[in-house]
Amino acid sequence: MNSRKKKPVYCFNNDKIYPSIIQASKELGIDYPSIGQCCRGNRSSVKGYVFCYPEQRDNYEFRKDKRHTNGAKRKKSIVVIKKLGNIPPYDFCSKLYFNSITEASKVLDIPMASISANLQNRTKTCHGYIFQYYEPERSEQNVGV
According to DSSP H, which parts of the chain are helical? Predict the structure, then answer.
């Protein structure tokens, strides 16, 4: 028998406290490791549901902006820099703007995992491109490069 202590979890969506992660998993049809990740702050939501431990419920304000409804995921805009010259720091380059990794993957025919690895600085380049996150309102002023 598992010697771990069962810990109750709170679901914001239905304002219900479940006796354990396993019970919430069974009732909502969600895999229990994801609920645990959400409670620990490693994940913002699971299939549109937001969970935390009951004692954290009142102090949950700082994570409100991470909540999603209807299972929608956050999209981060990215810019792709195509190196055209061999002179560092890439004086001759063009930029392409995308609303998400998915969009860039489809247009450039590059696996999403490869783009993600480049965005997380695990690789220097990705299929000859350099990917970076950007904030559209800030970057629109600097598009003249």
Answer: 21-28, 32-40, 101-108, 112-119, 136-139
In a domain, 27, yes or no: yes
Look at strands 93-98 and 78-83 and give their pairing.
antiparallel
CATH number at residue 109: 1.10.10
| The residue type at 75 | K
Q: What φ, ψ does residue 49 adopt, rounded to 5°?
A: -90, 140
How many whole angstroms separate alpha carbon 106 and alpha carbon 126? Answer: 14
Kindly state whether residues 96 and 125 are assigned to the same domain: yes
Mean model confidence pLDDT for the chain: 76
Whether 90 is covered by a domain: the verdict is yes
- Taking only the tens place, the pLDDT of each residue in 1-11 is 455 678 999 98
Residue 95: strand pairing partners: 81
Owning domain of residue 89: 78-142
pLDDT in tens, 83-138: 655 545 544 557 778 888 888 888 888 899 999 899 999 998 888 888 888 876 64
Is residue 51 within 8 A of residue 44, CB to CB? The reply is: no
Structural tokens at position 30? 């969600």
CB–CB of 52/10 below 8 Å?
A: yes
